[in-house]
Amino acid sequence: MSKLSYNENYMKSKASKLDDGAGGMFHFVSSIQLKALDFLVVDPGVVGRRTWEAWVLAMQYQRAFFRVSMAESDSHVECLVGHKVRRLKSHALVSAFNASSWAGALFEAWTCRDFDYARFLADVPVEVLRRAGESQGTRFMRDAYAWVEVLQAFVKGDPRAGALLEEARELADPGRASFAAGYAGLMAVPQMEVLGRLIARDGDGFNEALVRALESYREYTAADLAKGGLSGIVPLELLGMACLVRDGRVEGVSLEVESDYFPEGILDGRWLDAFPV
Fold it and tell me: What's one Pfam family the UniProt record gives for this protein (predicted)?
């Protein structure tokens, strides 16, 4: 059995097991995301439907995780996962429900054009993410929560988004970081610059910031990629924002940047009508 066939079976089996209940699904959210990235290694342009299915399934699984986590106690929610609507029982909050996974979920929602899901995420209270994410002793830097607030404001069209972004930039300043200064300088701040240009409806500035962010992403992930890691396969945050612009969802901004980092089959939305997302 090829690696991709194994990954495909793994992802489908985890989706099928949801029929027995959503308990413990949080254990597999990250592994399913990684399995989807494996498909991009073989099919970086997402030319084949199989790769798109893996990408969407990863999003759907995480979407189900967030929905059951936010559902009222002892209630049920219907979630489309793997071409099937599954009735899942609510699940107690766990540490995997955090600011980092929330941000990844939003950008993934944008790549799959699930804007209802994006609006759902925008209503998740930051304090709930903090309480759940830090329940096992993990501590997130303050800029992680500030970034969530900025993104939520952007999704809602809140005019405070620009001011919130300035606050987040200050918190993410690499010179002030107590740890992860490299990530702040090469990943967090460049992503904020790109979003800032979207908030300002600055087309030229957006494309210039996007080029710089892609260069920073390449620098930050080069070592892991050289060792066979998957962290440098696709810049999810930048891809998500590029998809918004590619679809004309940000007035006054058009996408002028081409990059091998952006899977064309995701960026141009060619598979969106293949099956319900």
Answer: Imm49
